[in-house]
Design goal:
Topoisomerase, domain 3; Neuraminidase; Gyrase A, domain 2; 4-stranded antiparallel β-sheet; 22% strand; rod-shaped; alpha+beta; 21 helices
Length: 749
C-alpha cells in the first residue's frame, strides 16, 4: 500500500504540523550537537572557534603581526563563514584570549578582556584589539598543505576548512564546555608536556592501558595554581569511563598571624569569595576571624588576607571550615563527550581520545606528505622539460619567436607534455637564456632525494610513527611548560560545628516575665538588678557558657533551645522569645537552663511525678520545640533541678501540706521523655481538688544539707536530719515541724 500523495499548494508541499515540528526539532537538535556545542576530536574546536582562528589567519593576524580591532575579526566571521550572533562570536573570541579561562590562550588581546572577578566584564569589540598567539601555529601551520577538507560557507561563495590540522591534541590541552540538546560536554584542560608524553607512550606501546597513560597524565591542569585534591583512584576511574568530577581547593600561606589565600579554583571569583566570608562574619558564624581584605594587584592576581582574632586560632581548622562553606573548594564536572572521526558524538575514555587523535594526526601527516610528494614530482617533471629546453636552447627560442602555435610545436619537436610546454612558455626568454645545467641538475638531485625520503616515509609505518613522535616532542619543547595545578591527596573539607568556632566564655542567660531574652557576659551578674522594661521583671536565669546551648522549658512540658552566643547582649532589653520559638497557645516559659550535654536534671510536676534526663534531650532544632515532659492534666511543670551524682544523690520533695520525703535519686528512671514515676504520695482526693500538690523539690548530694525557705523563716536540715524523713519512693513522707510546713523553695548545699 502506497502513501497518498500529499496535496500541493501553489507548488509548495504541505505536511502535517506534527511532522513538521518533529522534523524541525530534529534538525535543530542535530545542528546544535554537530555544528555548535560539541568540539571535534581532531582540533578540539567548536565551529565558531574554528572560524575565528581561521578568519584571523586569513587577516594575517599571526603572532608577529600588529593586532587589529576585534570587530574586524568578528565581522569577517559572521560575514564570510557563518551568521553567528555577533555578541556570541565575540564572547568566544574573548574566552580564547583570557589567560584565566584558557590554559594555553590562542588569542592575544589588547584592551579590557575581562578579569577573574568578572570574566564577562570585557570591553566592546570596537575597543579591543587581538591577534593570534604563537601556539595557534600548532593549529594553523599545516593548513595550506593539503591536510584538510574544505566545505562551502553558508552562502556557497567561499570555502572554509572543515577542521584545522592540529599538530597537538588541542582538545585535551585547553578543554572545553558545551551544552547541546540532550547532551553536554565538559573536558578539563591538561598540561601539554604530560599529554605529549602520553601520546608518545601510546605510540611506543599500542597495548598501553588507561592506567599506563595516567602515569603520564596525572590529572587535569587548570590555569590556576589551586590544588587538585581528587584521589588518584577517582581520577583513573574518570579517565576510564569518560565522566566523573574533579575537586579543586584554594591554596594559602601563613604570614605572621595572618592567612593569605594565594590561588583560587578555576573560574572562582575573588570578590565572590570575599562576599561569602563577609556574609558569615555578619551572621556571627566566624567568631575566629577578625577582618578580611583584598590585596590583589597586577603582581599578585590573587591575594586575599584573613586576619584571625588571636594567635590561638587553629588556622587549618578555620580554613577547612571556609573551604567547606565557600567556593574555596569547588567540584568540576567532567564529561568527555566529543565528536569523533566518524562524525558522531560519544563519551570517550582517555585512551580512546588519545588513540583516535593519533589516528587523526597520522592521516594528517600522510595528507601533508602526499601533498608535498605531488609538488616535488610536479617540479621534477617541469625541471625535466626545462633541461630539454636548455639542451636545445637556440631551437626553443626560435620556435617561441617564430611559430604561431609554439606550444604544439614544442610538444611535437621534443616530446614534451602540456605542463612542461606551458612552463617553458611561461618562463621569460631572458630567464631561459640564463639557464644553467648545473643548477637544474642540482635542484633535480635535491628533489629526487626528497622524493625518495617522502616515499620511504609514506610506505613505512615505523618511519611515519617516528616522524609523528619527533614532531610531537619538538612542539612540546617549544610550547610546553610546568604544571600549574599541583596534585595533592587530601580529603574533602569539613565544616566545623558552629559551637566549635565560638569562644568558650561564661554567660548568664536571662528571661523576663514578659518573655524577653538576653545574655550577659560573666557569671557574677545579678539578673534581678538588670534593667527591665516597664512592668517587667526577672522570670528565670541560667549560668552557662557561650559555646553551649541555652534551653527553655514551658508550662506544657515542651523544650526549646538556641545557641547561647546568638542571644542579644544584656546591655539592652533583649528580644522577645516568641521571635525564636513558637509556643503552644496559653503556654509560658517556666525555666531557663544552660549546661553540658551530659549534665542530668530532675524534671517533675506539681502532681509528684518525675524522672531524670540529660541536657541534650532538651536541645532541638525545631522552632516549635520538642515534647519532653508529659505532666498530668491540671499539673504544673516545676523548674528542673540539676543532678550532681545520680548514684549517690537524694531527692527531697515537699508538699503544700508540709509533708517531706527524702529518697535515693537512683530509684527514679532516666528517660529521654515522658511522665516519669511517682516521687511522693499525695491522696488522690486532695490532688484532684488542688488542696495538696508538690511545692518544692531539691537534689541533695550525699553528706549535704537542704535549706527550706518558709516565708521570712528558714530551716536548715543537715544530712543526719534528712535521715528522719527518709522513706521509700512514692511514700507519704514525714510532717515538717510546726511553723515550717508552708515551704516556698528548697536550696541544697
Amino acid at each position: 500500500m502506497t502513501d497518498p500523495a500529499r496535496p500541493a499548494f501553489h507548488g509548495f508541499e504541505q505536511i502535517p504540523l506534527h511532522e513538521y515540528a518533529e522534523r524541525a526539532y530534529l534538525d535543530y537538535s542535530m545542528y546544535v550537537v554537530l555544528d555548535r556545542a560539541l568540539p571535534f576530536l581532531g582540533d578540539g574546536l567548536k565551529p565558531v572557534q574554528r572560524r575565528i582562528i581561521y578568519a584571523m589567519s586569513e587577516l594575517g593576524l599571526n603572532a608577529g603581526a600588529k593586532p587589529k580591532k576585534s570587530a574586524r575579526t568578528v565581522g569577517d566571521v559572521i560575514g564570510k563563514f557563518h551568521p553567528h550572533g555577533d555578541s556570541a562570536c565575540y564572547e568566544a573570541l574573548v574566552l580564547m584570549a583570557q589567560p584565566f579561562s584558557y590554559r594555553y590562550p590562542l588569542i592575544e588581546g589588547q584592551g579590557n578582556f575581562g578579569s577573574p572577578d568578572d570574566p564577562k566584564s570585557f570591553a566592546a569589540m570596537r575597543y579591543t584589539e587581538s591577534k593570534l598567539t604563537p601556539i595557534a601555529e600548532v593549529l594553523l601551520g599545516e593548513l595550506g598543505q593539503g591536510t584538510v577538507e574544505w566545505s562551502p560557507n553558508f552562502d556557497g561563495t567561499l570555502d572554509e576548512p572543515t577542521w584545522l590540522p592540529a599538530r597537538l591534541p588541542h582538545l585535551l590541552l585547553n578543554g572545553t564546555t558545551g551544552i547541546a540538546v540532550g547532551m553536554a560536554t565538559d573536558v578539563p584542560p591538561h598540561n601539554l608536556n604530560e599529554v605529549v608524553s602520553a601520546c608518545v607512550r601510546l605510540l611506543d606501546d599500542p597495548d598501553a592501558t588507561t592506567r599506563d597513560l595516567c602515569e603520564h597524565i596525572r590529572g587535569p591542569d587548570y590555569p590556576t595554581a589551586a590544588e587538585i585534591i581528587t584521589p588518584a583512584a577517582d581520577l583513573l576511574s574518570m579517565y576510564e569511563t569518560g565522566h566523573g568530577s574533579v575537586r579543586a581547593r584554594a591554596t594559602y600561606i601563613k604570614e605572621g598571624q595572618n592567612i593569605v589565600i594565594t590561588a583560587l579554583p578555576y573560574q572562582v571569583s575573588p570578590s565572590k569569595i570575599m562576599e561569602q566570608i563577609a556574609a558569615q562574619l555578619r551572621a556571627k558564624k566566624l567568631p575566629w576571624l577578625e577582618d578580611l581584605r583584598d590585596e590583589s594587584d597586577h603582581q599578585n592576581p590573587v591575594r586575599l588576607v584573613l586576619v584571625p582574632r588571636s594567635n590561638r586560632v587553629d588556622i587549618d581548622a578555620l580554613m577547612g571550615h571556609l573551604m567547606a562553606t565557600t567556593d574555596l573548594e569547588k567540584s568540576f564536572r567532567v564529561n568527555l563527550n566529543i565528536i569523533g572521526l566518524d562524525g558522531r558524538p560519544q563519551v570517550r575514555g582517555l585512551r580512546s581520545i588519545i588513540g583516535e587523535w593519533l589516528q587523526f594526526r597520522t592521516d594528517t601527516l600522510k595528507r601533508r606528505l602526499k601533498h608535498r610528494l605531488d609538488k616535488v614530482e610536479r617540479r621534477l617533471h617541469l625541471l625535466e622539460g626545462l633541461l630539454i629546453a636548455f639542451l636545445n636552447l637556440d631551437e626553443v627560442i626560435r620556435i617561441i619567436r617564430t611559430e604561431d602555435e609554439p606550444k604544439a610545436v614544442l610538444i611535437a619537436r621534443f616530446g614534451l607534455t602540456e605542463d612542461q610546454a606551458e612552463y617553458i612558455l611561461e618562463t621569460k626568454l631572458k630567464q631561459l637564456a640564463r639557464l644553467e645545467e648545473m643548477k637544474i641538475r642540482g635542484e633535480q638531485d635535491e628533489l629526487a632525494k626528497e622524493r625518495e625520503k617522502l616515499v620511504g616515509t609514506l610506505e613505512s609505518n615505523a618511519k611515519l610513527k617516528k616522524l609523528l613522535k619527533d614532531e610531537l616532542l619538538a612542539d612540546a619543547k617549544k610550547f610546553g611548560d610546568a604544571r600549574r595545578s599541583p596534585l595533592v591527596a587530601r580529603s574533602a573539607a569539613q565544616a566545623i560545628d558552629e559551637t566549635e568556632l565560638v569562644p568558650s566564655e561564661p554567660v548568664t542567660v536571662v528571661l523576663s516575665q514578659k518573655g524577653w531574652i538576653r545574655a550577659a557576659k560573666g557569671h557574677d551578674v545579678d539578673p534581678a538588678s538588670l534593667s527591665y522594661r516597664e512592668g517587667d521583671a526577672l522570670q528565670s536565669f541560667a549560668r552557662g557558657r557561650s559555646n553551649l546551648q541555652a534551653a527553655f522549658l514551658d508550662s506544657t512540658g515542651r523544650a526549646y533551645s538556641t545557641a547561647a552566643h546568638t542571644l542579644p547582649s544584656a546591655r539592652g532589653n533583649g528580644e522577645p522569645i516568641t521571635g525564636r520559638f513558637t509556643l503552644p497557645a496559653g503556654a509560658q516559659m517556666v525555666a531557663t537552663l544552660a549546661a553540658e550535654n551530659d549534665q542530668r536534671f530532675l524534671l517533675a510536676s506539681s502532681f509528684g511525678y518525675g524522672f531524670t534526663t540529660r541536657f541534650e534531650n532538651l536541645v532541638g532544632r525545631n522552632k516549635a520545640g520538642k515534647a519532653l515532659f508529659n505532666p498530668d492534666s491540671g499539673a504544673a511543670v516545676l523548674a528542673p533541678v540539676p543532678v550532681n551524682d545520680p548514684a549517690t544523690d537524694w531527692v527531697v520533695a515537699v508538699t503544700t501540706a508540709g509533708h517531706l520525703l527524702a529518697f535515693p535519686l537512683k530509684e527514679l528512671p532516666e528517660l529521654d521523655k515522658g511522665k516519669g514515676n511517682k516521687l511522693i504520695q499525695i491522696p488522690p482526693a486532695k490532688l484532684k481538688s488542688g488542696e495538696e500538690v508538690v511545692t518544692a523539690l531539691a537534689v541533695v548530694r550525699q553528706g549535704g544539707e537542704a535549706t527550706l525557705f518558709c516565708g521570712a523563716r528558714k530551716l536548715t536540715l543537715g544530712w543526719r536530719d534528712l535521715q528522719a524523713y527518709e522513706g521509700a519512693r512514692a511514700s507519704r513522707g514525714q510532717m515538717l515541724p510546726r511553723g515550717f510546713q508552708k515551704v516556698d523553695r528548697i536550696e541544697s548545699a
